[in-house]
Amino acid sequence: MSLVTTPATTTEPVGASWHPVRHPHVDILGIPVTSATRAAITADLLDGLRSPADRCHLLFFVNAHGCNVAFRDAAYARALGQATWILNDGIGMEIAARACGRRFAENLNGSDLIDEGDVLRRCADEGIPVFLLGARPETLERAILGYQGRYPGLIVAGAHHGYFDHDDDDAAREISARIGRSGARVLLAGLGVPLQEIWLARHRSQLPCRLAIALGGSLDQVAGDVPRAPRIWIRLRLEWLFRLFQEPRRLWRRYLLGNVVFLARVALRRRGLYGTTTGAP
Fold first, then answer.
1. Per residue in 113-122, is it b (16+ CB within 10 Å) or e — as a string?
2. pTM for the whole structure
3. Tens digits of per-residue pLDDT, 75-120?
4. Is position 45 within any domain?
5. 235 sits in which H/E element
């Protein structure tokens, strides 16, 4: 199967290295979650992509499920500590912030910010090439076509499916080399939580791109394999419930039990009766 990609021919930015804006953050169970508007984060990301960088910056999204995973997975919690930005995803994070006397500026999930927001649109407008990592080969090909259909002119400089040995350093080096040869400045990784964050953090030093974004199951959505919730569900902050109806066997424990556990941890920590996530910064 031949993926429809376009090698980049853009020139690299020159000049002084870029440093990200220090946005306020909200401490959720020891995880410093950035609080900023979509416009502010988009502007920050694009400033970085237009400028030279001394390293690959990591953008992660965390929701109630991710916080629960961080409690039992030290590698995931440490990976979160390497992110330049950790953005809030979902109503559970908003409830947790309010319980601590804080509020997030906006809900910033990956689908709204990256897939359907301004980031890829601006990449298309400015000729900033991207590389896709994740999903099955046939899904990946449909995702490429889906992105290019949404954003005419978007340069998908390369792609690699997600079915490789994620513990194999040689495989990581080969994928990093492919990203480098492609000229991509943005890596969109859809390997699922917590694998994608752990893999990106582990191999960050050898990734040649400017920005790596962990996008979970977004590639499946863009490919049309998994439907996204209708707009009314999203506006009501009930996307999680739509997903539960779609996949009850797989997700009932995550949402029906996991959300209760998450909020209980937040309440107990507020009273000084519970610690932070394992290995969190």
1. bbbbbbbbbb
2. 0.90
3. 999 999 999 999 999 999 999 999 999 999 999 988 888 877 789 9
4. yes
5. helix 231-235
